[in-house]
Amino acid sequence: MKTMSLRLTVNGEAKHWTIAPGDLLLDVLRREGYFGVKRGCETGECGACTILLRGKPVNSCLMFAAQAEGGEILTIEGVADGDQLDPIQESFLDHGAVQCGFCTGGMVLSAKALLERHPDAGEDEVREALAGHLCRCTGYRKPVEAVLAVSKAARVGVKP
Ligand code: FES
Ligand code: FES
Fold first, then answer.
1. Which pLDDT score is estimated for 11?
2. Of 30, 47, 98, 140, whose CB neighbour count within 10 A is largest?
3. Å from CA of 100 to ligand 2 middle
């Protein structure tokens, strides 16, 4: 089998992996132990496989790993700082926005990308950012409320 080398940064750590040219980024990340990157529809519909590539949400089921060469990836495993959850993760818990959790990693990452661009994003922006994520358990109201609580806290300068 033809192989190639892939160098990238995942959650702040430099990685050097051997891949096949046709390997999907989703498959490579899960093979390397990033199981927070979920395998859902594999057609770009559900958002469960979302990662941030260079700060932007990407469906990892829709791209070849080779296309990420030299890139910086954030998976849900890299969002918390040790035991300290990210404020968006805290807010999802506080708002009951997590049930089975299958969609949660992707939603948190998309919300993080949004709030990094627009810390005080409003409801329309939050809904748009989460629009690519399907949730079969919680629905969408609670995740939207959870993200809005963080953006509201940014507006008034308090902890969410
Ligand atoms: S598994 Fe990638 S969008 Fe559903
Ligand atoms: S919490 Fe189960 S799919 Fe969203």
1. 98
2. 47
3. 5
Compute the distance between CA of residue 127 and CA of residue 106 in angstroms, rounded to an integer: 14
Q: 41-45: long-range contacts at Cβ-Cβ below 8 A with a sequence spacing of 24 or more?
A: 41/134, 45/134
If phi > 0 it is left, if psi is from -120 to 50 it is alpha, else beta; for residue 64 that is beta
Which pair of structure tokens corresponds to residue 92? 């999802």
What's the pLDDT score for residue 160? 64
Threshold 0.85, pTM exceeds: yes
Distance from the alpha carbon of residue 118 to the mean position of ligand 1, in angstroms? 25
Is any atom of ligand 2 closer than 6 Å to the C-beta of 93?
no
Ligand 1 contacts CB of residue 47 (under 6 A): yes
Query: Could you read off the pLDDT of 119-151 as tens digits, one per residue?
Result: 999 999 999 999 999 999 988 999 999 999 999
